[in-house]
Amino acid sequence: MAITLTLTDITLASTLLLITIGVSAYLRLRLTGTLIMAGVRTVVQLSMIGLILAWVFARESAWQVLAILTIMTLIASHSAKGRVKHPYKGLLSDSIISLSVATGVVTLIAMTLILKVSPWYRPQYIIPILRLILGNSLTAISLTTNELVNAMHDKQALIKSRLSLSATPFEAVHELVKSAVLNGLTPTVNSMLVVGLVSLPGMMTGRILAGADPTQAVRYQIVTMFFVCGGSTLACTLSAGLVVRRFFDERGRFVITEQLTQDYYYQNHQARWFYFWAFYVKLRFLSHI
What residue intervals traverse the membrane (predicted)? Predict the structure, then answer.
């Protein structure tokens, strides 16, 4: 039987933050304000998401589900862009393409061929599944893109020397691409190696706490881990290919100097408007509940 949590239970759980605040004060970490803000944002943001999901679940509209998935993908893409040390022109569009294709393909396979959900856009299934794939793919392409762009920046002489010896653009950066993709997939592979032994994933734990059969909870977690692995691999590969394409022109010449010229004020200004727009969309959803 599932245990129903009340507002009193949530309030009691929030008092555990006092331990962290106490440690922060004792060690003079200056995290008290940040921790309080983090706790408030956790409650507010998850409450908003809960209201939005309840509204979407009650309607099961394909357009509303696609709107939610699109917003999630855009926010994740912008977050991936912000994690790159040396951003280049076109990074946001590359992140959108990588995440959209990778999560879209894997989620569609999951919904239609494995879970056999009918209709395929049922929000109770597609939103949690895509969120898991998207979150892990976000980490994967962030690590891949960051390492590959840094390598392009730090090893310009090596790349140019290989090109001067008649190497193709792919041959010139093959080792860099391989290392970057491996770095991007490392968290996913590590989590698969220790799952069930060191940690119980959130999806499996949630289903067990909700009263589901442990055997079915385990099976759901197994297929979910495979979804995450497939999505992360596809996202890393696409991201690396798009990065390489950006740093070579149509004649195969290395153009890193031009690509790394960025107006950082414009980027930050653009980021503020992006998150304002995402918050506005959430409020519009809430206004219809």
Answer: 6-27, 34-56, 62-79, 91-113, 222-244
